[in-house]
Amino acid sequence: MTTINNNMDIKYVMNHIKSIAPICLSLTLFACSEAPTTNAVDNTTVADQSAVTNEPVELIPRELIFGNPTYSSVQISPNGKMISYLAPLDGVMNIWVAPVDALSAAKAVTADKGRGIRGYGWVAGMEHLLYVQDKGGDENFLLYGVDPTTGKESAYTPFENTRVQFLASDSDIPGKQIIGINNRDPRWHDVYELDIATGELTLLFENTENFGGFDFDNDLTLRFGQKSTSAGGAEYYKRTDDGWELFLSVSPEDLYTTGLAGFSEDNKTLYLQKSVGRDTSALFAMDLATGEETLIAQDDRADIGGTWRDKDTGVPYVYTVNYDKNRYFAMDERGEQILKRLNERFEGNFSRTSATDDESKWVVLNSQSNKVATYYVWDRGADEFTELFSVRPELADKTLAVMTPEMITSRDGLTLVSYLTLPPGADTDGDGRPEQPLPMVLNVHGGPWARDSYGYRSSPQWLANRGYAVLQVNFRGSTGFGKSFVNAGDLEWGLKMHDDLIDAVDWAVEQGITQKDTVAIMGGSYGGYATLAGLTFTPDRFACGVDIVGPSNLVTLLDSIPPYWESFRRVLELRVGDPNTEEGMAILQAASPLNKVEMISRPLLIGQGANDPRVKQAESDQIVNAMQEKGIPVTYALFPDEGHGFARPENRLAFFGVAEGFLATCLGGRAEPLGDDLQGSSLTVPVGETYVEGLAEALASFSAEERG
User: Fold this and answer.
1) What pLDDT digit, counting tens, does each position of 72-95 carry?
2) DSSP secondary-structure letter at 640?
3) Can you list the domains of the chain with their CATH numbers?
4) CA dist 641 to 116, 550, 646, 708, Å?
5) Active site residues
6) What's the mean pLDDT when you consider all of the chain?
7) Strand pairing report for 92-99 and 107-108
8) Which of 25, 96, 85, 117 has the alpha carbon at shortest distance from 648?
9) pLDDT tens per residue, range 489-519
10) Which residue stretches of the chain have pLDDT < 50?
């Protein structure tokens, strides 16, 4: 369970890097921006003008949506003297630092020239920065540091074929970082203490116990180790003077909704998020001396999310719940006062992204679904808010689309929390429905043990601007809605999970949002699988599909998982299908789109990174080859320098430019010409370049060298 700790250190800033949930791709990670190069309104190709609203708004250049952001990941240093952020340097995302009172004096302190830096943070209690980087998307993240004053960089883990995990740090122990390194055995991470000043690594625990996770107290002492069980659950072991003793057993049904959530500052209270004996995950406080548990936060509709905690005691005073929208709830008078002030100051969403060690200054991010996000510094003593940066200032004067939550009922009675985004101007009477049916894109999230959430998202904005309704569905198996909902997805790939998507499409047709023959399906990772499943299992339901790094064969997918997922293997087998049993193998075979490739009768675009360690290139290769053998058209966009998604902005622009032309041909929406969007990208199109209007010509316009 991820808990928002009071100390906004590197562990929490880059927690996504050590996430064990596999096959999870969020297309919103690709959202970026740069200045437009053409007047897109005057360079629009529209296959069917009826697919666009009567008075379409300005067509926003793809570069403003998928190029690099102007500013992102803004943080304040522990002593509050510096502001850091990610911004382009020569077109590549790097770390910049400025005095908090002289932002114009900002300077880049890194000089990455490849895929850019995507995860970084301040060392707890120390004016020093850490960041991680892999090679070409292979997800072997190594750890680097930089002194923001001198610019001196350090390579803390100069190893090959190694993946670093952030485990613990504390502002009261500055300069010490606990990390996991898997260079002894790629399946298991050993625990090391890193001295930031000297770079010295000290082995604290050799992981011969095969733990898949660890928990440390505020003294940076290893207290618990966690491992998966053969039944698909988890066990937490407490470290003692004599070794390890079982502390907590978690059944398979509670796996995604139960876990440890940190300590009070004196290490006497352990916080847990548990769903044992209930459906949603609630927050409990356990007295470690007596074992007594006290319920301190709960919600009947959704799991407890993060908490804000007192810097001196570690006691939570605010918790979050994300059902249809992320909401904050006060746990005491202090929390009430803080939330009241933030609600007075901001409309839409707000979140605390960073704070000084003494919590005198916060960085707050404010956003709305149809407005670009903006960072502020809140001086809490003076009660003053100072605007810092807008993430994409070039979008500030653009007309963006509004996202609305929708509750859709599945055929067997589940509530599917979903999000509808309509093109600006499509809903003239304000009832949340277009005046006439629109072509629609069903945009399926990855994971599948993840979720879609409310807010500004790049893909829905892009698609809505092109004239499409966009529907995002939290199908069964999605997380955050309690254990019964996530467990309802077990062994249901291509079955009830897919039924939920079809039910959502039927709902959209009944509501007059779209028509049954003008719906495309699109997604990344599991969403890519859902696309392939849609075109094979229900071939008459979708006009076309866009699959991004989606698995085509669940047997080969499980055979090729990365070694550092070993602790999660049994969970995958029990929730997707067990290839070691006859019954499990039958489930996997039946749910694999590759085995029904002859059913594909609608256009398909596939995007793949050659270095993807999660869904390997072979997953796309084999379905493309099978389609070719059967004479079924397919367009295959392959990027040799990418992994599980497209990190380089040149590659994002290239792929989404191709996807835009593909969808325009299929659904009749608006499309900005490819122009020079392929320049600098590594795009190769082994198959099907003639199926997307203008693609063959664009490829011919740039040599392989010009395309990176």
Assistant:
1) 999 999 999 999 999 999 999 999
2) T
3) 10-19+70-391 (2.130.10.120), 34-65+399-553+592-701 (3.40.50.1820)
4) 13, 17, 9, 9
5) 525, 612, 644
6) 90
7) antiparallel
8) 117
9) 999 999 999 999 999 999 999 999 999 999 9
10) 1-53
